[in-house]
Amino acid sequence: MRRIVWLGCSAYFMVGLATVVFGALLPELLLSYGKSYTSGGQLVFAQFAGFFIGVALTPRLIDWLGYPRTIWLGMLSLAVTHAVFFSEPMWGLVIAFAALNGCGFGMTQTAIGTYLLETTDQAAKTMSRLEVAFGIGALFMPIVTGILIAKYDWIWSFAIVAVAAFINMLFWTRNAMTAGRNKPMKTMPSVSAAYQDTTIKKAPLSASLLLVFVGFVFLYTGLETSLNNFLPSIFSQQFALHSSDASLSVTLLWVAMVIGRFATGYIADRLRYDRFLFYSAIGAGLSLAGMTMIGHPIAAFGFVMTTGLFLSGIFAVLIVYANRVFAGNTKRITSTLIASGGVGGAVLPYATGWSMDMLSATGAVWMLVGCAFLMLVCLFRIRMSAGRRDIESVTSLDH
Fold first, then answer.
1. 3-state SS string over 230-262?
2. How many Å apart are CA 125 and CA 398, to the nearest integer?
3. In Å, what is the CA distance from 101 to each residue of 79, 95, 104, 249, 385?
4. Which of 136, 138, 156 is nearest to 147 (CA)?
5. Which residue range is the domain that position 269 belongs to?
6. Are 241 and 361 in contact (CB under 8 A)?
7. 72-97: pLDDT as tens digits
8. Which range, of 5-14, 68-77, 216-225, 354-363, averages the lowest pLDDT?
9. pLDDT at 340 exceeding the cut of 50
10. Which among 12, 29, 72, 379 would be 20 to 30 A from 115, CA to CA?
């Protein structure tokens, strides 16, 4: 099982690279193609529309192909996509392959996350490790991109993602080929299916309560994706920074996210799930508001880091929280929530790009502040729907 967790972390590192590469390159990419921020929003929309499709297809692909081959297929999509980006195709193909990029990391992320949630009795700790690996990848990409922009050629960023995807394909090739013999493997050979079948009784699904969880993930993922893709552009516009300097904003965001994710298990162990999420959402909203009211880039970078710290643990805790509330429905709940994140990751960045063109960078950030505080509304609704007694029975992280 430890080997699979490490393979999962390696894959999540690669997904982190693929997820933030457009954001780190967006000012240079739009300049190279002569496009506006609205076009940048369309690019991010296409990527996360593809992400939604990938997430939606994953449960059926798992039933048909098994986990290893589904994961391998997602990695193949990423390797091909970034090889095409490296060739600097026409803008129409960039949009089309951005959708395939999203589909590839959506399949990979969902298949690995669902598999590990179904087969481990330490779901929160495992999800935290995966999120840390994702964060390291998302941190690594802007650093390398900034160096390439300043000293070499930014297009090599896509080659790095393509190579990382190819290496991960090699890691999973043996598992994928083994799964292809006889019948598809829904789980890996070393893991017993007994755990997922016998230890958790299914909880009834409340459509209204699930919808509120969906809304929360929609807002969170849209907020994080907008920051990933538009922070360099926001800093370039608001503080007149060069692209290589503005990309430091995403680097600092992910430095804070990685640090925060290491601490997530320790902090959330001492808080109820809903309290952890409440403090995280309100802290992120206040930090973003502070960023818009500061006129100096150094201070704004500081607020970027506090934003990252507050956002860092939200997704992992929310996924585990939902799976405790709806116990025994792991595959359905996980895929539904990740898919809703894909929709948020498509719609809100599109709105962010539009608002940067029509309003200003400051106006775009205030829209994201509003998203953070709408997350609080979702949390209050969750407490009202689930009931205090039910919530308190599922609010301790795994030890």
1. HHHHHHHHHHCCCHHHHCHHHHHHHHHHHHHHH
2. 7
3. 9, 10, 5, 23, 37
4. 156
5. 2-392
6. no
7. 888 898 899 888 888 888 888 888 88
8. 354-363
9. yes
10. 379
State the CATH number of the domain containing residue 162: 1.20.1250.20
Token duo for residue 58: 């994953």
Q: What does the pLDDT read at residue 239?
A: 76
Within-domain flag for 399: no
> Could you tell me if residue 299 is inside a domain?
yes
Q: CA distances (Å), 44 to each of 47, 80, 131, 151, 371, in order?
A: 5, 18, 21, 26, 18
Distance CA(49)–CA(99), nearest Å, equals 6
Which pLDDT belongs to residue 187? 47
Burial, 360: exposed, middle or buried (Cβ in 10 Å; 0-12, 13-18, 19+)? middle
> 397 lies in a domain?
no
C-alpha–C-alpha distance, residues 241 and 238, integer Å: 8
Asked whether residue 398 is assigned to any structural domain, the reply reads no
Please give the distance of CA 208 from its chain centroid, rounded to a whole number.
24
The answer to whether the beta carbons of residues 261 and 280 sit under 8 Å apart is: no
> Which residue in the block uniquely carries the two structure tokens 């430095």?
255
